[in-house]
Amino acid sequence: MKRRTFIKTNFTLTSGLLLFGQQACKSNNNLLQDIGLQLFSLPKMLNNDLRGSLEMISKMGYKKLELYGPYPFSSEKTIKEWEAITPQLGFSGSGFFNYNVSDFRSLLDEYGLKAKSAHIHLHTLNTRMPEVGHAARSLGLECVGIAFIPEEKRKTLDGYKRMADEFNVLGDLAKKEGLKFIYHNHGYGLKEQDDQVPMKLILDNTDPELVFFEMDIFWTTAGGANPIEYLKSYPNRYLCIHLKDMSKLVYFSKDGSNPQQWIELLPYMTNVGNGILDIKQIVYEAKKNGVQHFFVEQDMVENPKIALQASLDFLKNI
């Protein structure tokens, strides 16, 4: 080979390898695509101006949404319980915000947003799964599940065992509707009771083909557990994850079993990337172990326009 030909060939190969390396690095620097938002982050804004709020969310760069209930299809019991607490919350809007399901879907489409998951009250899932399925298919949902286990159902280990059985039934019903049932954890059930950890009891006693989970990394940490250890120990069980951060490491004052203890820790919730949680490593392990939907959730955050944009910008660059 002539010297000129050798140099030209070697330069071409080297340039190609460098370009490949740059693309690989670029890919590795963007762990997340299509980042989602749990709408309970800005309920008052949605309540007052739904269209304007969705436009803002879209312009920020969020692609997916997770909804919170109740909904038009919710059981009467669920709706009455919601109406009883709305005076304290300071807002009443939820679900489709006075739209019917088809018009709500059209509104989401207008702003390039896709609803992929919805929190639905346990009583509604148990009594109205066909109605849930119809609305979910209209919206394009993939997951439906509960935001918490009612306190009266988790007072003992036997209660948690019964919940595992109930989750298996709900998972089967959801599957028949073309959906996946998820359970979103709060901070209870993460410490040993009679030599067993209730959260692990549920994971170990539910069918992995029927029951999936949504990890909230803030509440998991506040409950004394390590999010990464759960993701590694239970691959492909966590389908969704709630991303938020903790300004300093704090734990529940007691067992994390009631809303009062949750409210005590809200001041320590901060923008993703602005706290002490190892967000990049959590996201990496989540993707590695089967998580498909990543939702920013900053519960009723003040100044959502600034806070939610900051969280999204951080996640886009990890």
Explain this structure to me?
With 318 residues, this protein is α/β, with parallel strands linked by helices. It has one domain (34-316): TIM Barrel (Alpha-Beta Barrel), CATH 3.20.20. It contains 14 helices and ten strands. It has helices at residues 3-28, 43-48, 50-60, 76-89, 101-110, 122-127, 129-139, 157-176, 198-204, 217-222, 227-233, 259-265, 279-288, 304-316, and strands at 36-38, 64-68, 114-119, 143-146, 180-184, 211-216, 238-243, 245-246, 269-270, 293-296. An eight-stranded parallel β-barrel has the order 1-2-3-4-5-6-7-10, surrounded by four helices. Strands 8-9 form a two-stranded antiparallel ribbon. Strand 5, helix 9 and strand 6 form a beta-alpha-beta unit. The model is unreliable at 1-28 (pLDDT under 50). Residues 101-317 form the Xylose isomerase-like TIM barrel domain. This is Xylose isomerase-like TIM barrel domain-containing protein. InterPro entries: IolE/XylAMocC-like, Xyl_isomerase-like_sf, Xyl_isomerase-like_TIM-brl. Pfam families: AP_endonuc_2.
